[in-house]
Design a protein that fits this description.
- By secondary structure, this protein is α+β, with helices and mostly antiparallel strands.
- It has a single domain, classed as Aminopeptidase.
- Helices cover 31% and strands 33% of the residues.
- It is built from five helices and seven strands, in the order βααββαβαβαββ.
- A seven-stranded mixed sheet has the order 1-2-3-4-5-7-6, sandwiched between helices.
- β6 and β7 form a beta hairpin.
- The radius of gyration is 15 Å and the shape is globular.
- The relative contact order is 0.15.
Length: 162
């Protein structure tokens, strides 16, 4: 069965939450209330499914959201319009098959033609070297650093022009 990328539906949400939790600390912890908030408010929330199994997902927002993430707010304070990736998670069984890049392409294609920036962050403390390498290979560049949780967490703030 081919890979299908489609909008999230309520039946996907428990699997999305489980996949997110499986990738801590490389992605931020969320609960079902936050997943439901994203489902209702995110500009982009799509899942990739293969053989009836969740293979990955991407959640993205544009400026103007009530989202309170410090990382998202950092970009809002510095850029007029952009497409922000709050999180992208690819299941271990689906890695190495280009799925992350396909989700990013789908995200970019879903944005209005006036959008020329994709932004995101990658953990540097604790380090997420696999994600950093992935994003560098996609053409992202580091435009800042943000330290939170009394220095227990640090992210590289990344940007890609398309």
């Amino acid at each position: 069965m081919p890979l299908v990328i489609r909008d999230v539906i309520p039946q996907d949400l428990p699997a999305v939450l489980a996949l997110n939790e499986s990738e801590l600390p490389h992605v931020g912890k969320i609960d079902m209330a936050q997943v439901l908030w994203f489902a209702a408010h995110a500009d982009y929330f799509r899942v990739a499914r293969k053989d009836e199994h969740l293979a990955g997902f991407l959640i993205g927002l544009r400026p103007g959201s009530s989202y309170t993430s410090l990382n998202y707010r950092w970009f809002c304070e510095r850029y007029v319009d952009f497409a922000y990736v709050d999180r992208i998670v690819v299941a271990r069984h689906a890695r190495g098959q280009g799925l992350g890049a396909r989700l990013y392409d789908d995200f970019a294609e879903s944005m209005p033609a006036s959008i020329s920036l994709i932004t995101c962050e990658v953990n540097t403390i604790p380090p997420n070297e696999q994600s950093m390498g992935f994003h560098m290979n996609l053409g992202f560049t580091r435009v800042g650093t943000l330290s939170t949780e009394a220095g227990q967490k640090e992210v590289a703030l990344l940007l890609k022009r398309f």
